[in-house]
């Protein structure tokens, strides 16, 4: 059956995501830091990015929770872990320090790096090293369940 | 002392961009069966690279600044043109390690997780946003 539809959807999603980041201002690290600067010159505009994105994604997640399949009927796994543990809080706190220092989170870093900014390419290389190191040594994951494998074999 | 800097066109662009990002997450979820969390997609692509759906998403994402330039000029990353390199690399490492330990970033927890009413994601968002705000308030940064 169709192995190409999920790929076409992924290509469209990648384009929408990148254009959304650029349009929204998330690819400007100074603006991101101004959004985080609540005790100084605070620019709250970027709150509208997350707000708008959540709003637009709500119906799709409601559909997915109910049907547990993609629109084409392929099985879909939603993250359903509920455990709030030290690893979650500690990991996201480390991320928060890096985000605050740089004004870059992973999506914008990839887009700005691709656009040709040398400092951000260096940042992306460090980020890649960090995520590979932590996947290998700090938080090895179980091999991914068939979710990532061709589903209709 | 907080001063609020706000411009309506800015906020409108942010809202429009956010809606596109939400549309992207919806398309990837219902069209490809994947969660649009960039740290997860990037980590997965780097560590195994076997999931073609994620690789295609990433390649399309990376193409966007170049496609944008077909329509109008785009200069990104100027704010970081003269960084303190050690701090910049440290920040990159923290983002990489932190998002893998915490299973997500601004998109995975902040957009997808919250849209899915996940308590884990709510805790994650409050944590990384709070810590990032404190980091900025204390005056730390890769250019200062």
Automatic annotation (TrEMBL), chain B:
The chain crosses the membrane at residues 12-32, 53-71, 83-101, 122-142. It comes from the Bacteria. It is found in: Cell inner membrane. It is a multi-pass membrane protein. Its main location: membrane. GO terms for cellular component: plasma membrane. Keywords: Cell inner membrane, Cell membrane, Membrane, Transmembrane, Transmembrane helix, Transport. InterPro entries: Sulf_transp_TsuA/YedE. Belongs to the TsuA/YedE (TC 9.B.102) family. This is Uncharacterized protein. It comes from Solimonas fluminis.
């Amino acid at each position: 059956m169709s192995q190409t539809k999920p790929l076409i959807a992924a290509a469209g999603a990648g384009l929408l995501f990148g254009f959304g980041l650029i349009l929204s201002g998330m690819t400007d690290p100074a603006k991101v830091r101004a959004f985080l600067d609540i005790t100084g010159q605070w620019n709250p505009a970027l709150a509208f990015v997350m707000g708008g994105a959540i709003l637009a994604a709500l119906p799709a997640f409601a559909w997915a929770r109910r049907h547990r399949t993609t629109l084409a009927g392929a099985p879909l796994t939603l993250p359903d872990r509920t455990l709030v543990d030290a690893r979650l809080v500690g990991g996201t706190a480390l991320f928060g320090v890096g985000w605050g220092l740089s004004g870059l989170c992973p999506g914008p870093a990839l887009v700005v790096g691709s656009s040709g900014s040398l400092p951000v390419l260096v940042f992306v290389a460090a980020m890649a090293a960090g995520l590979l190191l932590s996947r290998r040594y700090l938080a090895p994951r179980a091999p991914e369940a068939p979710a990532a494998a061709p589903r209709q074999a | 002392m907080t001063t609020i800097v706000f411009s309506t066109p800015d906020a409108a662009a942010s809202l429009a961009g956010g809606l596109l990002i939400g549309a992207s997450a919806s398309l990837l979820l219902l069209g490809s069966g994947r969660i649009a969390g960039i740290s997860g997609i990037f980590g997965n692509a780097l560590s195994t690279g076997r999931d073609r759906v994620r690789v295609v998403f990433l390649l399309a994402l990376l193409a966007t600044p170049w496609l944008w330039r077909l329509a109008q000029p785009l200069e990104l990353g100027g704010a970081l043109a003269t960084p303190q390199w050690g701090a910049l690399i440290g920040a990159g490492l923290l983002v990489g390690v932190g998002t893998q330990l915490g299973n997500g970033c601004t998109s995975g927890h902040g957009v997808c997780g919250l849209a899915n009413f996940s308590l884990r994601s709510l805790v994650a968002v409050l944590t990384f946003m709070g810590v990032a705000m404190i980091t900025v308030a204390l005056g730390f940064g890769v250019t200062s």
